[in-house]
Amino acid sequence: MNIMIAGCGKVGKSIAMRLCEEGHQVTVIDSNEAALQSVKSSLDVMGYHGDCTSINVLEEAGIRHTDLLITVTSDDEKNMLTCLVARKVGGCQTIARVRSPQYAEDIKYIKEDLGLSMSINPEKVAADEMIRLIQVPSALEVESFAKGRVNLISFAVLENSVLDGIKLKQLHSKIGMNALICVAAKGDKVVIPDGEYEIEVGDRLWVTLSYADINTFFNKVGIKTKTIKNVLIAGGGTMTYYLAQKLINLKMDVKIIEMNPERADKLAESLPKAMIICGDATDKSLLTEEAIDEMDAICALMNEDEENILLSLYAHKYSPAKIMTRIHRDSYEELVSELPVGQTISTKRITADYILRYIRAMQNSLGSEVETLYRLVDGRVEALEFNIGAGFIGSGKSLKDLSLISGTLICSIYRGGKIIRPGGNDTLEAGDSVVIVTTHKGINSLDEIIRR
Predict the structure, then answer these.
(1) What is the distance between the alpha carbons of residues 19 and 359, in angstroms, rounded to a whole number?
(2) Checking DSSP bridges between strand 418-420 and strand 369-376, what pairing results, if any?
(3) Residues 263-282: pLDDT tens digits?
């Protein structure tokens, strides 16, 4: 596909990199020459310098031959205006990043008038991801499918775990549940495991479960679960606003530390049920005063990665809380994976995942669409949800009669309100929602996982 990206900041560059990896023809536009050159020098893209709202700039960049325009500048209004102009001039599909809370509700009313195919609010979506982690505090990751009915849960195998030393084929007899382990990471090695895979302490495993079964599963494998009641958030940005709003709606106590007095006042006005503290969230004396050791969850969401990492390291040392750390820089993501900073939150990753999912659905013409897409284990595994259409080549056939490509597993079937743990005699039918995990990149159709 021919895809144009307006905005060469961190998010735009991340999206461009992912699209280039999948073989798309990418063109980027930015009024900042240095940002434009940074993307052009590191990726195989065409670049144009100028204002993306200009008809002349868009036409020079090839908008009339573009299939999809993605606008991710730092200005919401510019993003929406660019999509409107591009839709009128080029007739392409458009995606706009719209971050401001003032547009969060309004965008659904003006989406059609703007000609938007999709809008993405990274901070709001990141807040949703954090809520899932807070609601399942024992999990390292929680990815949801089938409109939240099926969950892909990541957890670590701890010392003295009942799982240590058993093979996957023994899992049901050991814990008495039909849980399906579908991805396993042992050190640097990542596999889609079979029944002979032997679980060891230190392994990171991904299991598909319904929400109702999560606590039961953790109890059976010896992982203690604790309900989160109070949350400390460091930083008063847009993501904090969305997260605090959701936490308050869930009847949790929320405490926010923000250094800027004006921003602190604004938060106090817009979030009257939260406690707002104006101060430095990396100040040890302030953290002690605010009883960091009594918090159930701590979210480091400040603008600077270094401050977030320092706070999370301090919290890990002095608090038993669940920790989440926002990371902006790609160069830090690998570094922090070796540090005890809890779950890392990246709006770049979230935005790229959402947009890539939409693009794969655009490409697909075989009746099965990518409904949900997550990248696991630093992008080495993809978890995808498909809705099966009438044209699927494997419809009605038993799974044992389907030959799947290597490194691929069907890990959940949702049919008629029921979650099915796939077995050899189960079938895939039109209308099913199916979740797969695979080490292959760029799968657009369920047909692609079947050997012919």
Answers:
(1) 9
(2) unpaired
(3) 999 999 999 999 999 999 99
